[in-house]
Amino acid sequence: MERLVEIADASVHQGATVALTGVDFHIDRGEIVTVVGPNGSGKSTLMKTVIGALKPSAGAVKRKPGLRIGYVPQKLQIDPTLPITVARFLGLPRRLPRAQALEVLEQAGVPDLADRQMARLSGGQFQRVLLARAMLEDPDLLILDEATQGLDQPGSAAFYRQIEEIRQAKGCAVLMVSHELHVVMAASDRVVCLNGHVCCHGAPEIVASAPEYRALFGSGTGGALALYRHDHDHSHDSEGNCLHDHDCGHQDHDHTPKADANVTSLAKPHAEAH
Ligand SMILES: Nc1ncnc2c1ncn2[C@@H]1O[C@H](COP(=O)(O)OP(=O)(O)OP(=O)(O)O)[C@@H](O)[C@H]1O
């Protein structure tokens, strides 16, 4: 398995805020990893660290030399009065051979949109065009930051089926932030739950049925939901240490790694605030 990105014991600041502390993370070629976590838990910070837009203040980030990354943003504002076709948009800032525009639109599942006006696309079509744009990089790693926000459930399910097709056709890895449980459970090889640190991680279907997981989060749909929904409430002190006061269904607050690696709680030793 080829390792594309490896992050070791990284702490990352956003201005004066310590957004991530002691984070270990990796992604290998061909896998789909989803990052979940509440608002402000550091998901975008982790994406930016993977891309290299943010540098950790402690720890290390290793990227495969020459790594190509395609990025699909949450949304992109385009002046609705600006007349620009999809093919021209894909060619910004430089002109793009039409055949190449058609090729990436095909990969994104919208082969017929090339001559449509950007301003007239539906939300789902617009996100497909952003996906096509990311594919121009011929990425080793495709990053999606809540790329289906605003789409209805069938629309976002279709979008993620397209992602799966791209992964199979191109063999790239996919790293995404998602708030949608059906995506997390159905479309990911691994789930990483963030709360300023890596709170827990594992393969979603194994995690959901593992006794260790049930002990932590409960069983049935409630348990699956809990993977995503368990409440966090913690802050960091000025040293970046995690002042932890969350209710994630733990019987106790043992955050040492479990023997079974399928469900792994990786919080660093930290001050509990109860
Ligand atoms: N540019 C910035 N300057 C200062 N603090 C920032 C900046 N960007 C993010 N932060 C802070 O860093 C922390 C992590 O933010 P981040 O955007 O990574 O969280 P997130 O999990 O992506 O949140 P959301 O789900 O709301 O998008 C938050 O406390 C946030 O307020």
Automatic annotation (TrEMBL):
The keyword ATP-binding applies. It holds the Pfam family ABC_tran. GO terms for molecular function: ATP binding; ATP hydrolysis activity. Gene3D superfamilies: P-loop containing nucleotide triphosphate hydrolases. The keyword Cell membrane applies. SMART domains: AAA. Keywords: ATP-binding, Cell membrane, Hydrolase, Ion transport, Membrane, Nucleotide-binding, Translocase, Transport, Zinc, Zinc transport. Residues 5-220 form the ABC transporter domain. One of its GO terms (biological process) is response to zinc ion. It is an enzyme of class 3 (hydrolase). Its EC number is 3.6.3.-. This is Zinc import ATP-binding protein ZnuC. It comes from Thalassovita autumnalis.
